[in-house]
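Take a look at the protein record below and flag anything odd:
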Amino acid sequence: MAPAPLFRRPMKHIDRRDLYTNLETRIQYLHSFLDFSTRDIEALTTGAKYIRVLIPAIVNIVYKKLLQYDITARAFETRSTSYEGPVDENLNEDSPQILHRKMFLRGYLNKLCSDPTKMEFWEYLDKVGMMHVGQGRQHPLHVEYVHIGATLSFIQDVLTEAILSHPRLKMERKIALVKALSKVIWIQNDLFAKWYVRDGEEFEEERLVPDVEPEGFLHGKKILRDSSESESEIEDCDLAAGSCPFKNLTIQTRGQQPLTAHTMTACLCIFYIPPPLYIFVGAHDSVGTATCTSHTSQVE
């Protein structure tokens, strides 16, 4: 007697043309493949207030990293990472163009904390990808994909460590939030890659290219919050007095005992960047009020 056939789920059909010409189809496919479900949406929704608190520190950390290399720094002067000329050595975090870019990164990260059930959420992520290949802007910007991928990975790493170190979240919530954010970031990575790679180029004439709009706008509507609105939301977040998502992080100082936030008088919240930079991204005063500051210090 022949054994009963194993049960197999029906194979889903994915139209290849639609993947390259219909953004909604592409998003649905990615959601299905990555098992992006209501559990992820719930994790993002309930965890958004914790992510918003981290945004000012994350923005500072990201731009410290980008300004460590001339090839990424030159994009802020020449609007292209392929430019081979010298870079202004005086370019720093307080330069006008860097402060301007920080404002939009804050807005972008706040957008990641919005409603992923709306197609507008994914349309904006797609537009962010398009804007980095010289399209959709009055003043084109060209950032090569190697730097895009590295920056996304860096942001994911910072977010993951901050979430897993959070003193108030239970482990199951930490895991759920890390998983959900990872899926969103990898979908964003795909929505960058689709503008760089040549896959599906035979359908190029059928692709819908978004209109040229000011940064932070989609379909003529402003969808990024002003920096003042973002900061007010951060101040309203219900962090417990004296609690800090970074306080459990530990760094190893050269020739000394490991240094933790609690060994420092001001209870500094520390993010680790490879030597010689150790970036202090926040502090608590004597009554436990959280402040989002950022500066660097040499630790010997």
In short: Residues 16-207+215-238 form a domain with the Globin-like fold (CATH 1.10.490.10). The chain has two domains: 16-207+215-238, 239-300. The longest strand covers residues 277-284. The longest helix spans residues 38-66.
